[in-house]
Design brief:
Oligomer: heterodimer
Number of domains of chain A: 1
Low-confidence stretches of chain A: none
CATH topology of chain A: ABC transporter involved in vitamin B12 uptake, BtuC
Strand content of chain B: under 5%
Largest sheet of chain A: 2 strands, antiparallel
Structural class of chain B: mainly alpha
Number of helices of chain B: 14
Distance between the termini of chain B: 16 Å
Strand content of chain A: under 5%
Distance between the termini of chain A: 47 Å
Radius of gyration of chain B: 20 Å
Number of strands of chain B: 4
CATH class of chain A: Mainly Alpha
Structural class of chain A: mainly alpha
Strand order of the largest sheet of chain A: 1-2
Shape of chain B: globular
CATH architecture of chain A: Orthogonal Bundle
Radius of gyration of chain A: 19 Å
Largest sheet of chain B: 2 strands, antiparallel
Mean pLDDT of chain B: 86
Largest interface: A-B, 45 and 41 residues
Low-confidence stretches of chain B: 312-316
Order of helices and strands of chain B: HHHHHHEEEHHHHEHHHH
Mean pLDDT of chain A: 87
Chain lengths: 286, 320
Amino acid sequence: MHAWAVQTFNSVAFAGLLFLLASGFTLIFGLMRIPNMAHGACFMLGAYVGYSVIKAGLPFFVAVAAAGIALALLGAIVERVVLRRMEANEFAQVLATMGLAFIIADASLWFWGGDALQIPEPDWLRGPVRMGDLVVPKYRIALIVCAAVAAVALWLLVDKTRLGAMIRAGVDNPAIARAMGIRVSKLSTFVFCLGSALVGMGGVLGAPIISIYPGLDFDMLPLAFIVVILGGIGSLAGAFVGSIVIGFIYTFGQAWVADLAYVILFLPMALVLIVRPQGLFGRPAA
Amino acid sequence: MKAVLIGTALAALVPTLLGSSFHINLATQVLIAAIFASSYNVLAGWGGLVSFGHAAFFGAAGYGAALLVLKAGFGHLAAAMLGLAFATVLACIIGALALRATGISFLMITLALGQILWGLSYRWVSLTGGDNGLTGLKRPALFGLSLDGAAAYYYFTLGIALVAFLSIRRFAGSSLGASLRGTRDQPRRMSALGFNVWLVRWVAFVYAGFWAGVAGLLFLYYHRFIGPHSLSIAESAEVLLMVILGGAGTLTGPIVGAAIIVLVRNLISAYVEHWPMLLGVLFLLVIMFVPEGIVPGIASRLRALRASGHKAPAEAPPHT
């Protein structure tokens, strides 16, 4: 019984990490209709940036902010300089982000080397805390809180603000939104920056749990894909539910069939594709 | 047909012309990559289905055959056939799942499924040897002729490559190939005309998977080794780059693209080890500056030149 409770807790923590990874991806996809193939690379780059900031002696949460800002800047450059040149050609955009993913991965290998790196959790979040008869690491609770805050903030932003209304209008019908005076192209840049910043911060927040190593990028990218395919591409609620489902399957899978944990992830995706190809919260393709 | 004969004659002369076994081996690598790229072209070029998991079938055939020989003691021919069958069955399953969607979703699903297979090869260490891959394979003898020499294996590969190119050409020229191009350009019209769009795409997916498996087997016996890299996203991205660089939807484009990529990689690897960086930069350059690919690019320039000579209006390049 106790082992179950521990695994459940770990599943929720991992789901939080997955949400930080997948929400930015689904936001970008929702507005711009492109899957950002460099999203996993941005996660890894964020973690590496955070590592360097912490190594320079700055506190953990400065590192998180620094990674967010660095990745937002990178996102702005990528969106303005590269993706804007091939607007309306989604395959060119996909392939361009793929090229960027390789460039980021190799540059990181160059800069930070091939060894796995660790980011320690901040001192005040180190060690366990007792919840009933459950003893859990403080840091994982903090991670769950961060993911929950991000989820609520994104929901408020998209559903309750004027900016969010404009984003939703841009998602639904970019042409009409433009005709109504909404600057969809500016919004695209903003959303791309926001999504990149989110995943960069997610990289630092996740690093104390999973170490940083070359190849982390393409380990994380399929996880983001599986989460959003499951939940419905472009839907925040879908990313939320998908993260929880995949968080549980991955964590319990590793406990039970360690060799195959990566493979059984594919089962819920296959099931959803067979029954409901657009994902749990997705809209059917037009 | 004339071009095919001339190409074959030239290719047959390669070992004599090049002489050194290093260069002959390079030519063998080009041929293997060209078969792989041509198989992908069926899917991405004529089918318009951009997959990021095509290496799955390349690697699956290689792993299947290697495991059967090394762990189950099968003979080479039986292992190769079963490995190919494994890749093809895998293509049937993955195709059936991934073709639930098209476009961007198709791309994401193939990437996720491909990465899962990669994860299996990388993490299931007791079976696959993990990162070290599977080694210790010997090349078989064909009717008593040893394939150990560079030239012998080159001719073996060339023979299979010819069968592959001609089969793929036949496919592209068949009514099935024509309906595949139809499903790429006008899926709704094709559907209204009574074609089973899904089935046409699925058949193309399996056909492409089969030839990728053939390339994977040739790769396995060329290197006498198979590792997780053969299933990796980098491998899938590389074959995609070969096809768009050479020209998607043309017969010669993938072969040209494969030759360029293999030669550049070998040329560069002598100096720097940062192939992924260069691969990424090439990706960006090709997409930004020659999005239609080299072969159609040159062809349309030539057409424009000829047209300006005759003062005739330039035609739109036909899709073949």
